[in-house]
Amino acid sequence: MLSTPSNFVKVADLDELAEGKPRTVRVKGQSIALFKHNGHIYATDNQCPHMGYPLTRGRVRGGVLTCDWHGWSYDMGGGGCFTGGCDDLATFPVEVREAEIYIDIASGGKKRDDAHFLLLQEGLLSGDNWTLSKAVAIMLAKGVSEAEVLNRLVQHAGRHFVTELDAGEGGWQLAYLVNGVKVASQYKPEDRLIPLMIAASGASGRAGDRPAVTLLPGEITWEKLERWIRVFSADREWEGIEKCLITARCLGGHDDKIIPLAYECVVEPFFLGHTDSLLYIGYLAELLEQFGWEVAEELVCNLTAKILGRERGAPDEIRREAISKLESLEDFIADLAANPSTQTTDFDEDTFAAGLVSGDLNHTFDTITDALKSGVDMNRIISTMVLLGADRMARTPASMSPGWWELGREISLASSIRTALRFAGFQAAAKALYHVAWQFFSDRWLNIRQIPLNTPRGTTPSDAPNEEAAIEGVINAIETIQMQEIGRITRQYLNHDFSADRLLSELGQSILKDDNGWDILNTLRTTFDEWKLCQGHPARNQLLVGLARWTTDVRKNTNSDSAARTAQRFARGETAVDLYEQ
Q: What is the pLDDT of residues 184-222, one digit of tens each?
């Protein structure tokens, strides 16, 4: 191609382009579509802004170019999109000189520099996962920092949660948002798109409007607000709690008291049986820690209020008994917090685990009380509860009701007590132990025979010739749904001198690349955390064995990885156009 002194570059001879028969040319590595329509010459990006299909395979009618794949339509001359709202088509100035076609790449191109921000906003409002994947991929490819992308997610989530979601729905989407971000942090940037897309989906949805929450008038102190929040939580009046929280923020000087108070409320006896509240407050604490009040205030104040003031329903007889028993322990817990035990009694872990899953309410609660009285370190109790849940997941019968959700909840709830301990202190964490113990008691219907945690679960090593082959064997067993074999294959890998950290990373990738990653995301995040924290425990491998079994049993083989890889290629300009031009 010959260049003129201007920015225009010759791309074809006029007689090479016929009416209704577009052709592709390459200019500076970019695929350009040339059209002759009603006697006029048009030049556009050959990549459809939706998913990258070559527009030379599209249809032209009345100056409107329509992609044949999904039907998105564009103004051929100006590039305006009639379908997607903010994904305009790049077009380029054309000149015909002495029967030769020239285009100006430098002066053409995208119509809006902020198109990727608008695309993210469109995805957040619509909740469309492809739009979100594409927007995040493009923003990161353009050099927008991951922190800025995440800030936008959190700010949109605040408005969406405030106007559209209740405590349950908001907590569920919050889990996707927070755990998507946490799981993404475990991977290199090039492998983060799927968990970031899940996080974006957790933040997405309609974002309406409402009148601003007015501050409480008069002489207001933190002590008054704290007392009122506790009353409103007991009475299930979330709007009063929100007004108190927003007023507290405006008072200043009390930000560090809000999350501890929220924890104190959700571990009250009347919250027994609503253990997801404990999880959700933990996620809010982590969100606030990472993004700060300036970004997360609307979300944190609103969803905290909805969680603390949520409807809890009338408890049945067994839950009333449990609530009464927990109320009777409050003085003991308060005294223990004020006067920590100095005993060094050995912790009988197997007796503790057996008591926790005994199916007898009094025995289950007494097991927690005895451990606290004995002065067992809180984190050691938590580790035992986490690994007990993991061991149960690794051994639950693969039947019609294996209890994956319930067992995943046991693991995540037990781990969440560490968050309560860090943000709210010993007393809140001690109460949380009983709430998590209630979850184990509630799962008494699961047919899982209790085995001491220290009992070996098999010592046979993998017969794979090397780590690469062994990893491939585990992932293949998952992807081909070898439910009866995956536990054994995973355990044998772990019994060999192969990298468990690598297996966890690859297992996580397998989960994320399939749509069951949405179902297992919370437990995957917890497994990443607890794998490090439970180092040295003989039952630690059960975390990976259980996760691999759940992953295999619920696998749907829908291949979410395809959309992520397409989005990444799209962001680099390497999509379907390249496939058709090879």
A: 999 998 899 989 999 999 999 999 888 889 999 999 999
- What percent of the chain shows pLDDT beyond 70? 93
- Do strands 8-13 and 73-75 pair parallel, antiparallel, or not at all (unpaired)? unpaired
Rounded Cα–Cα distance for residues 298 and 76 (Å): 42
For 90-140, write each residue's pLDDT tens digit: 999 999 999 999 999 887 766 555 677 888 888 899 998 888 888 898 888
- Tell me the average pLDDT across 145-159: 95
Amino acid at 483: M
Distance from C-alpha of 82 to C-alpha of 131, rounded to nearest angstrom: 16
Rounded (5°) CA angle 537-516-170: 90
Burial of 172 (0-12, 13-18, 19+ CB in 10 A): middle
Determine the pLDDT at residue 285: 98
Spatial neighbors of 321 by CB under 8 A, at least 6 apart, are: 361
| Per-residue confidence (pLDDT) for residue 563, from 0 to 100 | 65
In the chain, what are the domain boundaries?
Answer: 8-112, 115-203, 222-308, 317-445, 467-562
Q: Report yes or no: 422 and 428 within 8 Å, Cβ to Cβ.
A: no
How far apart, in whole angstroms, are the C-alpha atoms of residue 284 and residue 300?
Answer: 6
d(CA 231, CA 171): 22
**Residue in 295, 260, 297 with CA at minimum distance from that of residue 281:** 260
> The CATH number of 8-112 is which of 2.60.40.10, 2.102.10.10, 3.40.50.970, 3.40.50.300?
2.102.10.10
- On whether the CB atoms of residues 202 and 177 are closer than 8 A, the answer is yes
- Distance CA(43)–CA(56), nearest Å, equals 11
Residue 176 and residue 284: Cα distance in Å, rounded?
12
**In this structure, what DSSP letter does residue 2 have?**
P
Tell me the C-alpha distance between 332 and 410, whole Å: 25
